[in-house]
Amino acid sequence: MCCMLKGISTDNQGLDNRGLTLIEVVVAVGIFAIVVTTVVELLWYGWHSMRIVWDQLAVQNEGRKVTQDLTNELRTANYSSIGSYPIASAGANDLTFYSDLDKDSYRERVRYFLVGTTLKKGVIIPTGTPLTYSTSSERVIDMVHDVANVANPIFTYYDQNYAGASSSPMSSPIDTTQVRVIGIYMRLEENPLRSPVSFTIESKAVIRNLKNN
Q: What's the whole-number average pLDDT of the chain?
């Protein structure tokens, strides 16, 4: 037994006790940094893409609601509370008409107009005795942001000969007494540099109180 023990080495000279070299540490840190950077970039890209989608959806919903409200207001346009013609002015990017918005028998003066990329709405309630529409009392609010129509007008106008999509709009300047149908067109883009595609809304409003049949 003693002889057998003598043949066994009791030192650790055959084992590799070295730690990581500096080069190995640098390589490991580099790989870790690349992985972390890649993960962070993927997370940021995902968050950024999702934000663009949500922003664009918000713009679309805003545009849809305003277009529907405007269409309804135009359909019920009527002579003002002091006898003025239902349509006060008709431009490519601005429109003024009279309509009873709050169903109180008085007809408000309603103005939609584009400022920059924002479609605004101004409302004047008739007051006084006799009634008047004071422009100083106009209440203006933002309705649609990020309008990107470029050269396309928001509003187009058609006379009594309107027969659908094939009909040509009236030429400028518009004779408001001949208007029977108003077209609404808006191209919305939250950010042209980020949005994947613009969103287009189109509608037509027949002014019921001016129909000839």
A: 83
Q: How many CA atoms does the CB half-sphere of 44 hold within 13 Å?
A: 6
Which distant-in-sequence residues (6+ apart) come within 8 Å of 187 by Cβ?
147, 148, 149, 150, 152, 198, 199, 200
| 100, two tokens | 């009873």
Choose among 82, 91, 161, 166: nearest CA to 127. Answer: 82
Answering whether pTM is above 0.85, one says no
Query: Domain extents for the chain?
Result: 48-210
**Residues 157-210 pLDDT 10s:** 999 999 888 899 999 999 999 999 999 999 988 665 555 567 889 999 999 998
Structure tokens at 94: 């601005």
CB 156 within 8 A of CB 166: no
Q: Report how far residue 106's alpha carbon sits from residue 118's, in angstroms, rounded to the nearest whole number.
A: 28
The C-alpha atoms of residue 100 and residue 158 are separated, in whole angstroms, by: 23
Asked if residue 12 has pLDDT above 60, the reply is: no
Query: In this model, does residue 32 exceed pLDDT 90?
Result: no
Residue 115's nearest CA partner among 143, 83, 86 is 143
